[in-house]
């Protein structure tokens, strides 16, 4: 998803890669990422939570904890 939607290379993607420092995402990229996360979970992400997601691992943990919005 990160490769396709944000144009990242596979070698750039690791759990501890930070969005701004390591991957160079700007604020518009971060809004797009947040939109993707909200679409996956089917619910809005709280502002405080969104600001705390600084690495790929943070997003994966959030998605794992909140599911994909689909019924089991």
Question: What would your notes on this structure say?
Answer:
- The chain has a domain at 18-66: Orthogonal Bundle (Non-ribosomal Peptide Synthetase Peptidyl Carrier Protein, Chain A), CATH 1.10.1200.10.
- The longest helix is centred in the middle third of the chain and has 15 residues, at 27-41.
- 51% of the residues lie in helices and 0% in strands.
- The chain has helices at residues 2-6, 27-41, 47-52, 56-66.
- It has four helices and no strands.
- It is mainly α and 72 residues long.
- The radius of gyration is 12 Å and the shape is globular.
- The model has no long low-confidence stretch (mean pLDDT 87).
Compact summary:
The chain has a domain at 18-66: Non-ribosomal Peptide Synthetase Peptidyl Carrier Protein, Chain A (Orthogonal Bundle). It is 51% helix and 0% strand.
List the helices and strands and how they pair.
Layout lengths: L1 H5 L20 H15 L5 H6 L3 H11 L6
GO molecular function: acyl binding; acyl carrier activity
Protein name: Carrier domain-containing protein
GO biological process, one term: lipid A biosynthetic process
List low-confidence stretches: none
- Structural class by sheet pairing and helices: mainly alpha
Strand content: under 5%
Number of β-strand runs: 0
Main sheet specs: none
Tally of helical segments: 4
Average pLDDT reading: 87
- Which architecture of the domain at 18-66 would the CATH scheme give at its second level? Orthogonal Bundle
Which word captures the global form?
A: globular
Query: Topology as H/E string?
Result: HHHH
- How far the N terminus sits from the C terminus, by CA atoms, comes to 22 Å
- CATH topology value of the domain at 18-66: Non-ribosomal Peptide Synthetase Peptidyl Carrier Protein, Chain A
């Amino acid at each position: 998803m990160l490769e396709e939607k944000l144009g990242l290379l596979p070698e750039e993607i690791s759990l501890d890669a930070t969005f701004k420092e390591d991957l160079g995402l700007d604020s518009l990229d971060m809004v797009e990422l947040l939109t993707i996360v909200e679409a996956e979970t089917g619910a809005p992400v709280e502002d405080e939570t969104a600001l705390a997601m600084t690495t790929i691992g943070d997003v994966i943990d959030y998605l794992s904890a909140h599911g994909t919005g689909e019924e089991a």
